[in-house]
Amino acid sequence: MPTAAPPSQVATGGPIENALSMYSWGDYDAPEVLEAFTKAKGPAITTDSFNSNEELISKLVASKGTGGYDIVVPTGAFIPQMVQNGLLAPINKALVPNLQHMDPAFLGQAWDPANNYSICKAWGTTGFVYDKTKITRELKTWTDFVDAATKEASGKVSLLDDPAELTGIYYWSHGIDWNTTDAKNIDAAEKFVVETLAPHVSAFDSYPGGQAIPQSSHWLMQVWNGDARIGIQNSKQPEKWKWVLGSPTTELWMDNWAIAAGAPHPEAAHAFIDYVLTPENQLKNVDYIGYHTGAKDIQPAAEKAGLEMLDMVFFTPEQIATMKTGEVNEAQQRTVDIWNKAKAAAGA
Which alpha helices (DSSP H) does the chain contain, by range? Predict the structure, then answer.
């Protein structure tokens, strides 16, 4: 693991640079917060988006610290390998005093116990939405999802463009730990995903809430909870969409603010992270992205503010008990291979 960062990567609280570049998941920050940061602090913000952690890491590895990105937003399970490979710069927490507004329950995670390289940005889960005017029976589980995908929704199915989410459908619906490294389980997942499911899939879309749900281009879509909320809110017929939390089990993911190795604007990066952690900005982001941001007392604040569809943002202890975080383990390459084979089989 890197023990120190080059001087160019270390923020000291000096003058804030005039620019900030962010590589994140799509449409993942309230525009009003970004605009207010530029107005208050000066840096003009540019953003690029990725569909999966694999895409993020590949880009950072290829650029070897010269990609020009300041802030990146990896999912927790990928952070150890990113640190070990020198892809992240350490965070100077003295420059992030608003860390005090975070709920300790969402700090000190196993992948970064001292938050030296990451701070929770948002966490959520995976489920699906379906068009009740096209699929008239009630769907409740991942098994129901697969059944509908291969029957009445065939050809109108969208899956997340993310390797683990794809094989997850098999593991979650078959009662298998989705972090399994057992070759028999992985072989079965490949056969199922490539031969049974993929032929019925017409799109791999990590952000169906942006267009697919509002435009009703698909009838059955695997989706992250916040993106599902955005899509339903932006639909002309929101009542026809049904959100289902994946069951009997599904995932719990946490995305994190982090600073890329070689970040050209480290002072601006620290200033931005500190800025978004204020209670008022956290609330604006919860409303916009539809995910729990890990801030203290954010749920009562959202309820008091009258934010809508909060049952898709905040989950009960019973629901959270059905969610499990992912791991990056020796099955990772097989999972990526299955993803590629599935996309080829689908022709999407």
Answer: 31-41, 53-63, 79-84, 142-149, 163-173, 183-191, 212-215, 225-233, 266-276, 279-289, 298-304, 317-320, 332-346
The SS3 assignment for 91 reads: coil
Name which of 225, 215, 214 is nearest 289 in CA terms.
225
Looking only at the bridges linking them, the beta strands covering 71-72 and 250-260 are antiparallel
142 touches 172 (CB < 8 A): yes
Q: How far apart are CA 92 and CA 96, in angstroms?
A: 7
| Distance, CA of 115 to CA of 180 (rounded, Å) | 27
- Hey, is 146 helix, strand or coil? helix
Rounded mean pLDDT, 59-68: 84
- 16-61 pLDDT per residue, tens: 999 999 999 999 999 999 999 999 999 999 999 999 999 999 999 9
The encoded tokens of residue 63 equal 């650029």
**Average model confidence (pLDDT) across the chain:** 95
The answer to whether the Cα torsion of 131, 135, 141, 142 is positive or negative is negative
Q: Which domains does the chain have, with CATH numbers?
A: 7-123+252-315 (3.40.190.10), 124-251+319-346 (3.40.190.10)
DSSP notation for 282-336: HHHHHHHH-SB--BTTHHHHHHHTT-S-GGGTS--HHHHTTEE-----TTHHHHH
- Tally of CA atoms within 13 A in the half-sphere of 230 that contains its CB: 23
Pairing, β 250-260 against β 88-89: antiparallel
* 66 pLDDT higher than 90: no
Burial tier of 173 (Cβ tally within 10 Å: 0-12, 13-18, 19+): buried
Phi, psi of 278 (to 5 degrees): -70, 150
Q: Assess contact for 177 and 203: CB atoms under 8 A.
A: no
Q: Are 169 and 257 in contact (CB under 8 A)?
A: no
Show the tokens assigned to 11.
């923020």
Are 52 and 163 in contact, with CB atoms under 8 Å apart? Answer: yes
| Structure-token pair, residue 86 | 């020198």
